[in-house]
Fold these 4 entries.
Entry 1:
Amino acid sequence: MAIAGAPLPPAPAVLAAQAGAPGTPGDPAGVLQPPLAPLERVGQAPVAEDRPIELAVLDSAGSIVTRKGQLTGEVQLDYARADRNRAVFRGIELVEAVLVGVFDINESRQDVITSSAALRYGLTNRLELGVRLPVVHRSDSSILAPISGSTTNDSAATIDNSVKGNGIGDLEVTARYQLLDGRGGTPYLIANLQGVIPTGSDPFAIPRDPLGRARRAATGAGFWGIAPSLTAILPSDPVVLFGTLGYTFNLGKNVNTEIPPVLISYVDPGDAISASAGIGISFNQRTTLNLGYAHSWALGTKTRTQLLQANATWGDTRMTTSRDLQIGRLLFGVTYRVTDRSSVNWSVELGATDDATDLRTVLRVPTVLLTGH
């Protein structure tokens, strides 16, 4: 695995020549073949390469900072799938364990295909700036159906609320600064700063029917976000150890959206603490396997609501906080260097907790457009 700025080991042909040099202790060739004829170099040494480490499972944060003047373009395609099945009771609880009403199964499914283009530029040998613009194709399906035998009421019908959405997603801008250069057995240490600009369609601004149900799926989160993090990459041939630690600040805002019977006036998405760790195993100079685990602790979302028609039990406004989310993911990835300028990164994420997306797979193809200095 090549590391930017690090010297490469001698080529096999060079090692063979050194082993056969006269005066090497214990070398039969040195005894039987005195230097009557010069040693000839057989074959061609590999071309010196200056390609940074790439970790497929860490997206753009999984590489050494782009060197000064280098421009890297990247195309990405990813697919995410989430399924949720929950039992819901609609009715009245008379006493403990005595329920009068209908038991429903709420089946929800979300499929998201995202294609994106990104650019990363080395402003200096330690500072890199980047931007990424995604295009989102999203399909949400939610079906609420009575459990067979739980009711004889024909009015308890199946409720199908399925929507789709296509369009620009949220713009991402990044800045990365390399604190340590990996010399003397120390890891590469990189400070990352990511900003999310809500350029996608806002989930609180999309059209809704009289019951407050969305008519199409949103392509953005609708909130500004700032995410500082640290990435450590420690080469130890033939493996690379890596880890990240970060915090995401999500900024709340006034939304003033009516979803009967309430008016949602303010939403503050919870911040999130995230960490990941893993290992990259190099099979040869072109192919690397990545294994890891990532976990995020998303704090509860605060929502301020009020009834459209106030009553005695619910005052003017009410502030509620949702439960925290524990999002764990198992990471698998493969990096293959096609040429000195281009590589292919493929990764798979499997949800390890109930709150995590069931499956996400990402294909990235970074290509060096300008080599820089």
Entry 2:
Amino acid sequence: MASSNVLLTHSMGPCVFADTFFAEMSITQRSDSMNSYFDGYVNASTTLNQFVKLYEKALESRNEKEVKADYDTMNTLPLLRTPSPMEKQASELYTRKIFMRFQEELVETLTLMASKAEDDGEVTTYQVAKFGEDNKSYRVNFNVLEMRATCSCCMFEFSGLVCRHVLAVFRVTNVLTLPSCYILKRWTINAKSSVILEERVNDAFSSYLESHTVRYNTLRHEALKFVEEGAESVDTYNVAMHALEEAARRVAIAAKNEGRLLLTNGRTREDARSNGTLTKRNISNHHQSLDHNLSEDEMDRKIQELSKEVECGKRKCEVYRSNLVSVLRDIEDHKQQLSLKVEIIRYSMKDCL
């Protein structure tokens, strides 16, 4: 009875913890990994003193292999098996070992079919299976607005790598690059990097980028539905085209009015959020400009000139930021390459001695 309970608990383990992150390592795998760690170094007759010395030797060997693997990842390019932009993206981000795992999952998507099962407008459910094996299908829920997908196999939740079923859904929905939420830093070539300044620089843009992404995905989702309905007949097509032309005109007017409102107040949105102390000064400047009794055409011309200056300033800031991030990344990569070369030389000298 006791043994049957143990077997039941052992078989239930993977199911219960399937959605818990374990870096794809079970308890038995950890035990096997520890045993293989000391293979060729210790045995049943090894004394405690010998074990300590051999442990240090095993540790040095493991570190040497890790250094060589890091060097290969940083200085050699993996062989790409598909023309997919996602595979190229993964080859530039992941370590060599993790990329090979991802590449295997990506190639397997060519044998899978993803068919739409349900669609509630926000989350779409797909059935993913090999051709002719519908009885072995997996369910993938895809939120197009958030660009997030979950699979019933729970591979990403368990191992931190996207499964072939989610990648198959990405393929049929034209998601060409891997969303950032599926790229865990622990699996990337920069996992050991300590470039904090880049993260601080990106913090200033994070809120804008997130909100912009949400707006973009929402519009994209609604536009796709609009296109499908508008293309059903000639009448609906004509109505859809007229609506698009009217919408484009209104968007242009709204964008122009927004720029005029921001510059009439004497500051941009970012200035309003970050520097509230200038409010009185801006209001004073606004009243002074009104006292000049400028015509509406002259006001529009000045607003357009200021708009161009603001846009030019934004572009310059973005260029400076990109250059700064690029320089920091190059410095960090150079430091890593130098450290790897030093480690390899050090281990080579030990072997010679």
Entry 3:
Amino acid sequence: MTTIAEPIVLRALPDYEPKPGPPPRPTHLARRRLRVVADPPPASPPVGEVPPAVASRIRNLINQVLEAIDGRRPVVQLRQQFTPTAYGSIETRARGRTTTHRSRLRSLHAQQPVEGIVEACGIAEIDTRLRALAAQFEVREPLRCNVFRVL
């Protein structure tokens, strides 16, 4: 059996209900009213459709990345088409990997939010698992990938 050296003291809680009587007067902050504003303008649509030739080049480049991730293509071959950050993420993912299962691109969607930039997203099967891909490309000669992520 445990004994407590100090006695336990119970205290009454302080009053938390308002005192009886008229309610307090509203302050100047309470007098503000909501303003009705017009709906914000809709988000601007993409600048335009991605030309089929650019979409085909993007698809080919992403397939080359998947080959590099599998170890079937040297990653160094992709250096010219990627910024150092994007290239580093591919190099890290591909480092020391060899697999018997071939990765493949299941779907790819591309849009052009601003002139000269194409954003792409897709689904790839890597090591028998479905993975999401996201990429951003500069449309110029040669096509250059600024961001590439396998999620």
Entry 4:
Amino acid sequence: MNTDQAKSLDLPKIMSRLGHEPVRSVKGGRELWYKSPFRSEEEPSFHTSFLGGKWIWNDFADQGGTVIDFIMRHEGYTSVTDALNFLTSMFQGHLFDTPVGRVGGKSSKLSSPSLFSFQQQARLDGVAVDRDFSEATLELVAVKPLQSPLIFSYLASRGISRQLAQEYLKLVQYRNHKRPSAKPYFAFGQENVSGGWEIRSASDGTGKFKSALVCRDITVHSGREEGRGAVSVFEGMLDHLSLLTMFGTSRLKGDAIIMNALSSYQRTKTYIEAEGYTRVDLFLDNNTPGQEAAHVFADDFGDIVFNHSPSFAPHTDLNDALRAGAHPDFTPRSSPEP
């Protein structure tokens, strides 16, 4: 990979792979705002912009630049060569093929970013498991039953009981070869349908770091009534556990899909179509990306889609609502069955 190729890479996709998701999208998806990956903050001050056919970034009152500049700062590199090697290891395969999407039933080049074009082009034809998602620096070490006071304490602070956590989550140990340590890092996580592990860090007690080991894909939990025909869709594992807690149950009647990232839309769509669900209940975040995704679900599946995000507004997600002591006020027509 040369510098021109690196500068043409999709920076929001790179940031997503490094565990950073946007909190606000403006200018039709051409400008995305994040909490700075370089410091702790409550309000987003870091943004990416799609200008002149390329992504650039700016960190408020600090610095900005190209994809290469971002990787050098994020990973602590002092040479462009190291940054290029890192990007080459992150992306493998046909990096610079022009994606083709569908517009009005016809093939069309995707020339500008949108919610999904900057996160793996979710409307592309075909389905591919993102097996190069997990950074080459992260290595799965072991998966064990969940027994960690630190994790239990963190989950309790999020309103999730030990019993529910042990039913759905595992202790995942991994190594980060960019930050060698005598002992493996540990996280809580769930296995996805392709045998990868979706993880959330626990080593520092904050749960802020999210990533995937081996590969990224959706996670599916079967409902307690086979053939129910309904499926509930969540962005993250804690959203699912939060709804179970609100309903006072350990399993929904219908199936549950954890997207693990909005970039998994195409995988989610394909799974829903293959299973022939007749009802889709959405519990996506009350923010711009989440609600743009809800609109895409509605466009693709029509009146079998029920968007429940307004039911837990003004909270951003189900876990925020749970911690605030709220209980979604579902209407009889749209109420999911616990």
